[in-house]
Amino acid sequence: MGRILAVAAAGTVALLVCCSCGVRGKEDEDVLDSLVEFLATLAGGSVSGHAKARELGWDASTDPCDGSGGHDGSASKWGESVKCFENGASDAGKIKAIDLQSLGLNGTIDAELLCAAPALRVVSLQNNTLRGGLPAGVSACSELTHLYVDRNWLSGALPSSLGNLGKLHALDVSSNDFSGEIPAGLSHLHGLIRFNANDNHFQGTIPDFDLAKFESFNVSNNNLTGPIPKSTGHFRGDSFAGNAPGMCGEPVFPACPSEESKSRKTL
Fold first, then answer.
1. What is the pLDDT of residues 160-214, one digit of tens each?
2. What whole-number distance in Å separates Cα of residue 182 and Cα of residue 125?
3. pLDDT tens for residues 169-180?
4. How confident is the model at residue 85, as a pLDDT?
5. I want to staple 79 with a disulfide (CB 3.0 to 4.6 A). Which of 57, 85, 102, 115 is the partner?
6. Residue 257: what pLDDT?
7. How many CB atoms lie within 10 A of CB 105?
8. Which neighbouring-strand residues pair with 181?
9. Long-range pairs for 244-251 at CB < 8 Å and ≥24 separation?
10. What ranges in 22-108 are assigned the alpha helix state H?
11. Strands (E), the chain
């Protein structure tokens, strides 16, 4: 009897495992509506914006990630600008990446509409003519790992809320008209290994990034001053060049005044 019960229990477990393998998520209708509106806003809104959404195949009445696209289900029915999680992934059925680079988009970024997609990992809006700022609400995209908004006409300060994106690996805001200070919270993101903010109008000092772990780092051609990070890793002058007079810190620049005074006291 005990053997029969054990066999029956094993069969039940196998059945449950098999059933769970077939379970996949699906983006809610309001998420799809929000993303279509997000793209329309990027494209200038109104009639022209929605025309661009239709041109790219973004249709809220169509499930973008039904698992039938490509050899692993990652291809989207919304076209090449959208990638889905692979079949079998914990977030299968959800949108993983949005790539809208080099499409002539000239509108603004609405973070609330974008972050309606709960599992979104990668967003690329680079090489357009987007205007306005990078909204603080982008921190609601809590699963975001890669954000690229370089080569646009974006302006204003970077929101300090970027420091709340705990899973962020790459952030590129280069070649825009951003100003203000680089948020200090970015230096506390343990997973951040790529940060490019060159060719803007940033002021103040560079946060104390641990550049030894970085693969890419560039803050050149801004209005930054003061000390460079203590740990520069393999990055040298071209990552810091073209800033305000007074940038200091070995081994790239002369020692900062406070460092020089300390060294004199020890002599």
1. 999 999 999 999 999 999 999 999 999 999 999 999 999 999 999 999 999 999 9
2. 20
3. 999 999 999 999
4. 98
5. 57
6. 85
7. 22
8. 203
9. 244/203
10. 29-42, 46-56
11. 82-84, 95-99, 122-124, 146-148, 155-157, 170-172, 177-181, 194-196, 201-203, 216-218
Residues 6+ apart with CB under 8 A from 76: 64, 65, 69, 82, 83, 84, 95
Nearest 5°: CA angle at 104, between 217 and 65?
80
Q: Which residues of the chain have pLDDT under 50?
A: 1, 4-21, 260-267
DSSP 231: B
- From 43, 69, 70, 67, select the one nearest 54 (Cα to Cα): 43
Q: Which two tokens stand for residue 50?
A: 């929605």
**Amino acid (1-letter code) at residue 185:** G
Pairing mode, if any, of strands 95-99 and 82-84? antiparallel
